[in-house]
Design a protein that fits this description.
This protein has helices at 3-25, 28-44, 55-77, 101-115, 119-129, 134-141, 145-162, and strands at 79-81, 89-91. It is mainly alpha-helical and 169 residues long. Pfam families: Sigma70_r2, Sigma70_r4_2.
Length: 169
C-alpha cells in the first residue's frame, strides 16, 4: 500500500474513531488530542501495518493503547514514591491526616441517642440494624410485622431529629 493510499484510508477512518475517543476520554478536547496522537502513531508506524489486515481494528487498538498509556502516566504523575526503606506509595490527593475526634464525638452522640430511645423502639431498631429481617424481628418479639416496621420508622425519625446537627450541609 502506498503512502497516499494509506493516508486516504486513515483519513476515512478518523470520523469513526472520534466517537470512540470521546467515549474513552469523556471530554471533547481530550478526544481530539487522542485522535490526533492516534493518527500520528499510525503514520509513524505505517511500516508495521500488515497489508491485508483490518486497518480500522489496527487504528482502534492504537487508540485504546494510547489512552491506557496516557492514563497510567497521569496516575503515576499524581503518585509520590517514598524513598525510605519501607517503599510506600502515597497518593498525593489522599494525604490528609485526620485525628478522628469529630467521628468519636459523633459516635458518642449516636450511641447516646440510641440509648435514650424507649425499649419498645430501640430493640426492633437495633435488631434491624444488626441485619434481622422484619419477619424475623416480628417472630422473635412476638409482635405483628406492621408494628415492627412502625417502631423502626419511629426510632429512625427520633434519631434523625436528635442528630439533625450531623445532617447534610
Amino acid at each position: 500500500m502506498t503512502a497516499l493510499e494509506f493516508s486516504y484510508k486513515v483519513d476515512q477512518l478518523t470520523s469513526s474513531l472520534k466517537p470512540f475517543a470521546l467515549k474513552l476520554t469523556k471530554d471533547m478536547e481530550d478526544a481530539n488530542d487522542l485522535l490526533q496522537e492516534t493518527v500520528l502513531k499510525a503514520f509513524t508506524n505505517r511500516d508495521k501495518f500488515a497489508e491485508g489486515t483490518n486497518l480500522k481494528a489496527w487504528m482502534y487498538t492504537i487508540m485504546k493503547n494510547t489512552f491506557i498509556t496516557n492514563y497510567q502516566r497521569m496516575v503515576r504523575r499524581n503518585t509520590f514514591i517514598d524513598t525510605t526503606e519501607n517503599l510506600h506509595y502515597i497518593n498525593s490527593s489522599d494525604s490528609i491526616i485526620q485525628n478522628k475526634a469529630h467521628t468519636n464525638f459523633a459516635m458518642k452522640d449516636i450511641n447516646n441517642a440510641i440509648d435514650n430511645l424507649q425499649d419498645s423502639y430501640k430493640v426492633p431498631f437495633m435488631m434491624h440494624f444488626r441485619g434481622f429481617k422484619y419477619h424475623e424481628i416480628a417472630d422473635k418479639l412476638n409482635i405483628p410485622i406492621g408494628t415492627v416496621k412502625n417502631r423502626i420508622h419511629i426510632a429512625r425519625k427520633e434519631l434523625k431529629s436528635k442528630l439533625k446537627v450531623y445532617g447534610k450541609k
